[in-house]
Design brief:
Blueprint: E1 3-8, E2 13-18, H1 26-34, E3 42-46, H2 52-60, E4 64-69, H3 72-84, E5 91-95, E6 109-114, H4 129-135, H5 141-150, E7 152-163, H6 167-174, E8 179-187, E9 194-200, E10 208-209, E11 213-216, H7 224-230
Parallel strand pairs: 3-4, 3-6, 4-5, 6-7, 8-10, 8-11
Antiparallel strand pairs: 1-2, 7-9, 8-9
Helix pairs in contact: 1-2, 5-6
Length: 240
């Protein structure tokens, strides 16, 4: 198994990832930054991969994170990454299927987050089995979202990062009450390619479309706001 060592949030988190499979990047950091977790609370990450999002979140806030990952080898690697970052006492990974939750995780958490497979069954499937498993949702996006909401306490949050063109499917699964959408704009004036969707369990608040975050300046440099999240480990408020 060939691994690379990747640094996140300005080197505060080191994550070893498989060279040939799915690799976490900007999406994982932004998702972790958006979780409104408080010290001592518990978070569940569904589809944790090598643990980048969970570890970035736990580095920012002294909380407990449980990561669920379907690939046993990745779950083991994520646990090794937690140890490498001195977080084994607060961050733990379990091998299992999001759509058939292991018994130990069939409970509720203050917050649930996920970066689900970005593609449905349309389009080309990666020849790499691990990458295909991470990227293709087998038509089960709605099941990921409704399953995630089941794991959230009343008034807790469920946050997901998605391709912008899958927003309609997400709203159909989650409804609109208590839901807000936070676009991630590549540059000012460009269409969003990613969105953060936040649902608050049992909330009756009206749907909110929020201003979002511009990631890059006119060139390739990150904006000041994006740099604070990606390099400095700042949080991202998407609650409006």
């Amino acid at each position: 198994m060939n691994l690379s060592a990747d640094k996140f949030i300005g080197g505060r988190v080191l994550v070893r990832q498989m060279d040939g499979g799915f690799r976490s990047g900007l999406d994982a950091v932004v998702l972790a930054a958006s979780i409104p977790v408080k010290e001592g609370e518990e978070v569940l990450e569904m589809g944790a991969g090598a643990g980048a999002a969970s570890l970035c979140l736990a580095r920012r806030v002294n909380c407990s994170v449980f990561g669920l990952e379907i690939d046993p080898a990745l779950a083991a690697l994520a646990d090794e990454n937690a140890a490498e970052n001195d977080m084994s006492e607060r961050v733990r990974f379990v091998a299992g299927d999001v759509l058939d939750m292991p018994a130990e995780l069939r409970r509720t958490f203050e917050h649930v987050m996920c970066n689900p497979p970005f593609h449905d069954d349309d389009g080309q499937t990666s020849p790499d089995a691990g990458r295909a498993l991470a990227l293709q949702d087998r038509g089960a996006l709605a099941d990921w979202l409704t399953g995630g909401m089941k794991r959230v306490v009343s008034n807790g949050t469920f946050t997901v990062i998605l391709r912008a063109d899958r927003l309609n499917a997400a709203l159909m699964a989650l409804g609109e009450r208590g839901v807000s959408v936070f676009p991630l704009w590549p540059r000012a004036g460009e269409a969003a390619k990613r969105v953060l969707v936040r649902a608050v369990k049992a909330s009756r608040a009206p749907f909110a479309l929020l201003p979002g975050l511009v990631l890059h300046e006119a060139g390739s440099n990150y904006t000041r706001a994006a740099n604070a999240i990606l390099r400095d480990g700042a949080g991202l408020n998407i609650d409006g």
